[in-house]
Each structure stands twice: as structure tokens, then as C-alpha cells.
Amino acid sequence: MGRRKKGDLVNGWICLDKPLEMGSTDAVSKVRRLFNAQKAGHAGTLDPLATGVLPIALGEATKTVSQMMDAEKAYRFLIQWGVSTTTLDREGEVTGTSDVRPPVEAVAEALKAFVGEIQQVPPNFSAIKVDGQRAYDLARDGEAFELAARTVTIHEAGVADAPDADHVEIEIRCGKGTYVRSLMRDLCAALGAEGHVAALRRTRVGPFTANESITLDKLTDLVHRHALSEALLPVETALDDIPVLAVTDEDAFRLRQGRPIVLLPRQVELLKPRVGASRAVSAMTGSVLVALCELRAGQLSPTRVFHL
């Protein structure tokens, strides 16, 4: 007999508003302890100096984390002009200073060059591995190395606010792998200015938005009121952009056993225009998520089975 897992069977997502100066791993641990959940994970690391949306998966929701890794994200960040740092944010050592304060119109115009599919070099202070070591560890040790440029996509970028001559606030909507600090660095270079990211907030990860996020203080309050379930979002929240197919109890039983089901021709015709290149389909019986499947040759084959 296998060893019983510690904790309770809790399934769903928490859209956490991560506080400043807390790592993503610590945030997951705190949420897991609040729920006394058996299993937990997060969809997309958020730096300690950043705040905002950190989707945390509990129980069966951890099986959908991979779907969220490719999700579109949105950020709002503040650039402070005049000082550049090693880490490209306010935590690093000063590497350069300047009296240049680009006007808002110039910033807005320069941002246009970064919209679309671009080549971006990640920051040296990042979690990317170089010969088996994290880049930030090498950077802290003063090691000399260069990271290769990567293709990323920025869908939108614009000036959100300019509180004073020393600061400008930028909003972007982007694809996976985009580094805000790298965008800031390259924008400063294009404007002939020195600068660093003074504040960063993630406002969206796929279907998870800042408007529906919840703080750790509010979660703690819900614990005291025995109302934690109020903050729990369904497992299928992460699959909101994947077409859904209603299946019978008999087909649900087959899928849960890991066996494919044969679809009727009309079901295939209905799904084909919606599945896209991924061929992913969510199979549900009633309001219960059964499996994440792949549509192929008129069949649905389960790739992730859920026990809800």
C-alpha cells in the first residue's frame, strides 16, 4: 500500500496578488500551507521585486500548469531615468549615470520598434542556465559570459503615465519568455539614456487578471472565517482558450482509464476549426473536467486525466 500523502485533497487555482520582496516559491509554500493542500505549483515565476498576478495551482490543477506556461502576459512597469544598474532594477549596483530625460513623445515613438516578433537578449541576472549554472549565480560571482538572443513577441507597448521628469510608466502585453528588464535596457539604449526598472507589476497571466487576484492577507482572513473555498477557482480556468466537448459517462470512464474515444463525424467537424495546431480539447461530463485530450484521426486521446 502506498504512503498516504500529507494534507487535504484541494483542487483548483488561486490567483494570488504576490507581495513585494517575496519569491514565487515562498508564495506557493504559503498558499499551500493555508489550504493544507497535498500538492501545489505556480504558472510563471515572478521576481521578488515584482508584485501582481501569480497563478498558483493546487491538487489536480497542477496538471494544467504546462498550459499556462505559454500564456500571454501583461505588465506595468516604472522606469527611473538617470541611473543604470547591474541587475537592471533598483536592487543592483550603479553602472552608469546620465542627465538625459527622454520626453514622453520620444519614449512612445521608440517603443514602436519593440512591438512584434523581436530578438531579445535576456538579463545576465536571470534564471537561465549557462553550462549547468544559473546566470544570476555567475553574474553575482563576477564571471564574464554572454547570453544568446531569443525570439520573443510583444503584442502591445505604450506609455501609461509620466508622473515626473525622472519617471515613465510603461504597459506591455507579451508572449512567453519576454523580459521586462531587457526591454527597459534596450529602450534606454535606443533613447541614449540611462535607466532601471524601479517598480514592476504583472497584471495578467492568460485568464488570470489583477482584478480577480487575492492577497495573502485576504486569504489568511478567509482561513479564520473557514471560507477558503471562496477564493478557489476551478481547475479548468487555465483551459479557457481550449474548446470543450461534452462526453457521456461511458466515454468519461474510458478517458479516465487512458483509452481514446471515437468521435462522431459531426463532432469532428465542429471541433476542427477550433482546435488549431495544438489539437487540444477539454472533455467534460456535466460540469466536471474529465481529461485534456488531443484530437487526431477522428479520436480523442487523453493526455492529462483529472480525478475530480
Helix percent band? 10-25%
Largest sheet: 9 strands, mixed
And the CATH topology of the largest domain?
A: Pseudouridine synthase
CATH architect. name of the largest domain = 2-Layer Sandwich
Count the beta strands: 18
Query: What is the CATH superfamily label of the largest domain?
Result: Pseudouridine synthase
Query: Structural class of the helices, strands and pairings?
Result: alpha+beta
In short:
The chain has eight helices and 18 strands.
Question: Would you kindly provide a written description of the structure presented here, covering whatever features stand out?
Answer:
The chain is α+β, with helices and mostly antiparallel strands and 308 residues long. It folds into three domains: 12-70 and 208-237, Pseudouridine synthase (2-Layer Sandwich), CATH 3.30.2350; 73-205, Pseudouridine synthase (2-Layer Sandwich); 242-305, Roll (Archaeosine Trna-guanine Transglycosylase, Chain: A, domain 4), CATH 2.30.130.10. The protein contains eight helices and 18 strands. The protein has helices spanning 24-35, 65-68, 104-111, 135-140, 180-191, 216-224, 249-256, 265-275; strands at residues 12-18, 40-42, 50-58, 73-81, 83-85, 94-97, 116-120, 129-130, 133-134, 150-164, 167-174, 195-205, 208-209, 244-246, 261-262, 280-285, 288-296, 299-305. Helix 1 packs parallel to helix 6. The chain is globular, with a radius of gyration of 22 Å. The two termini are 22 Å apart. The model has no long low-confidence stretch (mean pLDDT 91).
